[in-house]
Specification:
Layout (H helix, E strand, L loop, with lengths): L1 H19 L18 H16 L25 H19 L10 E4 L2 E4 H26 L14 H6 L7
Helix pairs in contact: 1-4, 2-3, 2-4
């Protein structure tokens, strides 16, 4: 169902945001390994990908000619305000394009990089891609977090307690 995709996107967005809140403004741009990515780079990439894929989702190729994917990974500093703005704008595009769709639209064909996919296939790809990069944001944030980490998933040693009240399973 379409609602499942919308809910998963919202869950990954929220998880990434809770991780990024724990990183200082300066550390958002910190690169920890040679040829690695900063949190800011990953945010730019997710934002660029979602904006490209979902702008005119049903009617245009998801890889827009105006997207410069390589620049999303350029070693450039961004302020938290700039990152928040691009992140919010990208998620606004996703919601604007998905909200009017129905479950019947899941079998509609869309195009990404010239390849035909059903909406269902495209959404599966997009959720998986977003999840992978949100995992990177969480790992980087966990390493870079100043002070004590505020858990955004089930804390170590708390699985049994969580299973009594599994609040993160659905929105």
């Amino acid at each position: 169902m379409l609602k499942d995709f919308i809910d998963e996107f919202a869950r990954y967005r929220s998880t990434a945001e809770r991780a990024m809140e724990q990183v200082s403004d300066d550390d958002l741009n910190r690169i920890l390994a040679p040829d690695g990515n900063s949190v800011a780079m990953v945010v730019r990439h997710i934002s660029g990908n979602l904006t490209s894929r979902f702008t005119n989702f049903l009617s245009e190729d998801g890889e827009k000619p105006w997207r410069d994917r390589d620049s999303e990974f350029a070693d450039r500093s961004y302020s938290r305000t700039e990152l928040d703005a691009m992140w919010t704008a990208a998620w606004d595009v996703v919601r604007r394009e998905l909200d009017p769709l129905t479950d019947a639209d899941l079998e509609t064909t869309v195009t990404i990089r010239g390849q035909q996919l059903t909406v269902h296939e495209a959404l599966c790809r997009s959720v998986a891609h977003t999840a992978m990069h949100v995992g990177q944001i969480i790992l980087l944030a966990r390493i870079l977090a100043a002070g004590e980490w505020r858990w955004i998933t089930i804390p170590k040693g708390k699985s049994r307690e969580y299973n009594q009240n599994p609040t993160m399973e659905r929105r």
